[in-house]
Write a structure and sequence with these properties.
Helix content of chain B: 40-55%
Structural class of chain B: alpha+beta
Number of strands of chain A: 10
Strand content of chain A: 25-35%
Distance between the termini of chain B: 29 Å
Bound molecules: adenosine-5'-diphosphate, magnesium ion
Distance between the termini of chain A: 15 Å
Oligomer: heterodimer
Strand order of the largest sheet of chain A: 6-7-8-3-9-10
Chain lengths: ~220, ~400
């Protein structure tokens, strides 16, 4: 479903090229649950962003259902993300001036869903992550754990087939972290493909397989 | 949730940052609307003075300064009444009507009004008839005379006084009162009015004119002269001159006949007002340029800062699948709302200022002009959208992942 073919990524940092990823080959099948581990700065986030069509590679191709993502226009990639891909961020990235409800409604708004369905679906999703009583709270009025759960509800709004999570538990205490992880397990059990970046070995162990990254190279798990 | 909701929420969440650029456009539109509104009514007033009213030449004392036609007789300097006779018996051609006036301020019941003495036409006619010459022996339809509005109504006393500033008959104890005087004192036709120890009978209440005439009481010239103990003097003579004759040197002829008086045409009198209006028109053009620049720059500056501040949010929206059109719309909609608010607010405040201060600044009645809201919104939205274009395009072209990696 997702494939990287000989992908490299160089960043230009103050005119010096930094290689974040070199010649990566990854294949993620439908329903797979992959964890990506490695030391900080080894290129995990870079890999995840490229899988999600957010960052163009310097070399190589990224394929989504056999379509080369970076041969499409940015707006076509955005349309694919909207329909099929959900991102979960370490810092949640909730929109600060919108309530929990409204944050969950964003993907539905982007998909052109009518307002009544938006409200209904957002309520269901927030209830599912255990925030049925926090609908009108803004992110600043929620605990970090609750914020990450709002982010999870938002990811699910458009029912994506692929979930890409970048250190989803990085900012959470162990208990809340575990909650989020079991939620990801649940989503995978429903048949969704999950790719999760983490540096927590216990978290990584929940996945079906693990990719190890060192200095921009995949050393095992390919 | 609609995109509008999202934009609206953001505006309210960070309304303080928006305040400066909103104020710039709002105050700019306010100024334009106020100037346009006052100028329109001022131009209308000038046109009304020029067209609707009879006299086109004023004979005044040498030292008199004229601000406007209606208050030309409100001064302390005087002319001998004999000038009227000299004029009416002269062989100067093109004089259609003469109206001598003597005015004084009268304070009664804590309010001030103007008592103006006028000479009814019947009295010149007897004099000129006796002299066997003069202006009123000519056919009635003088070339400079203002034509009556065609219609079934015969002009009444009130209309001839208000429109032509001439009256046929007036008894020594009769008075005609302006609309404001009548309203303030609750007077109507047939009531009596005591002024300077004399009791006048109100024979007519004049229709509202929107000029200083509304707070005048007109009475017989000789009654006013004796009440003031001044002898046979007047402050001004209003003359209806024939237009062709005016261009053929009528003013010079009158000047020659009355060397100690100052003779001016009404066009000269309203000239200052015409020039003020011209200046106002230029001022509003300058204002337009200024708000386009200041308002536009301020909005553009704010929008750039707003896009920079929200780059993470924009990145998030893009990660969730928002395309560039969506982001573009989000910022343009914000510009549109800003422009709309500035336009509507500016129209309301500008109109309020014009209606409140127009009478004080320009001495005219100013009414709200609904058409200006179209202009206000058009200009305001135009400027706001133009200023938001580039920042919005920047936002739409943001690299979504660059916005995450800065943390
Ligand atoms: N926008 C960028 N510009 C320059 N260098 C970058 C940028 N983003 C990441 N890098 C560099 O690329 C490497 C990999 O970064 P990243 O993928 O974020 O690592 P990880 O998520 O594993 O910590 C790091 O050395 C980082 O400094
Ligand atoms: Mg990272």
């Amino acid at each position: 479903m997702l494939r990287m073919e000989g992908v490299s990524k160089n960043y230009n940092h103050r005119s010096a090229a930094v290689t974040a990823l070199s010649d990566a080959n990854v294949a993620v099948d439908r329903g797979d649950y992959v964890s990506v581990v490695g030391p900080s700065g080894c290129g995990k986030s870079t890999l995840l962003l490229m899988l999600g069509g957010m960052l163009s590679p310097t070399r190589g191709r990224v394929l989504f259902d056999d379509e080369s993502l970076y041969d499409l226009s940015p707006d076509q990639r955005a349309a694919i993300r909207k329909k099929h891909i959900g991102f979960v961020f370490q810092t949640f990235n909730l929109v600060p001036y919108l309530t929990a409800m409204e944050n969950v409604q964003i993907p539905l708004l982007l998909a052109g869903v009518d307002e009544q369905t938006q409200t209904q679906r957002a309520e269901e999703l927030l209830a599912r992550v255990g925030l049925g009583d926090r609908l009108d709270h803004k992110p600043s009025e929620l605990s970090v754990g609750q914020q990450q759960r709002v982010a999870l509800a938002r990811v699910l709004a458009n029912d994506p087939a692929i979930i890409l999570a970048d250190e989803p538990t990085g900012n959470l205490d162990p208990d809340t972290g575990t909650q989020v992880l079991s939620f990801l397990d649940e989503l995978n059990a429903e048949g969704r493909t999950v790719v999760m970046v983490t540096h927590d070995p216990q978290a990584a162990a929940r996945a079906k397989r693990t990719l190890h990254l060192v200095d921009g190279a995949i050393v095992s798990g390919e | 949730m609609k995109l509008k909701t999202l934009v609206w929420r953001e505006i309210f969440e960070r309304r303080n940052q928006l305040a400066t650029s909103f104020l710039a456009i709002f105050l700019g539109i306010t100024a334009i609307v106020a100037i346009k509104n006052i100028t329109f009514y001022s131009e209308k007033a000038v046109a009304r003075e020029l067209d609707a009213l009879g006299a086109n030449i004023l004979v005044l004392p040498k030292a008199a300064s004229v601000q406007d036609y209606y208050s030309a007789d409100m001064q302390t300097d005087e002319l001998p009444e004999e000038y009227v006779t000299r004029l009416s018996m002269s062989d100067i051609e093109g004089l259609d009507n003469l109206s001598p006036k003597l005015s004084t301020r009268v304070e009664t019941e804590g309010r001030s009004l103007t008592l103006t003495g006028i000479l009814p036409k019947s009295e010149f006619q007897s004099k000129s008839a006796w002299a066997g010459a003069g202006i009123f022996t000519r056919p009635a339809e003088g070339c400079g005379e203002v034509a009556d509005v065609p219609g079934v109504f015969k002009p009444t006393v009130k209309e001839t006084l208000v429109r032509k500033r001439v009256i046929e008959d007036l008894a020594p104890d009769e008075a005609l009162i302006g609309a404001d005087v009548a309203a303030l004192r609750g007077l109507k036709e047939g009531d009596s009015l005591a002024l300077l120890g004399h009791t006048f009978k109100v024979t007519a209440v004049l229709p509202q004119t929107g000029t200083v005439d509304d707070s005048r009481v007109f009475a017989h010239l000789h009654t006013v002269q004796s009440l003031l103990d001044k002898g046979s003097v007047i402050n001004a003579i209003e003359v209806v001159g024939c237009c062709q004759e005016i261009s053929a040197g009528l003013v010079e002829k009158i000047n020659k006949l009355l060397p100690d008086a100052k003779v001016v045409t009404v066009t000269q009198v309203v000239d200052t007002q015409v020039r003020t209006n011209g200046m106002m028109a230029r001022l509003s053009t300058i204002f337009l340029a200024i708000i386009a620049l200041v308002g536009g720059a301020s909005i553009a500056n704010y929008m750039y800062a707003n896009v920079f501040e929200r780059r993470r949010e924009i990145g998030t929206l893009m990660a969730l699948g928002a395309g560039s059109t969506m982001i573009l719309k989000m910022f343009l909609l914000k510009g549109l709302l800003l422009g709309l608010a500035g336009g509507v607010g500016g129209y309301v405040l500008g109109t309020l200022l014009a209606v409140t201060f127009g009478p004080r600044l320009a001495g005219i009645t100013v009414m709200p002009m609904p058409i200006l809201i179209v202009w206000a919104i058009g200009i305001s939205v135009g400027i706001a959208l133009l200023a938001s274009c580039l920042p919005a395009r920047n936002a739409a072209r943001l690299d979504p992942c660059a916005t995450f990696q800065e943390i």
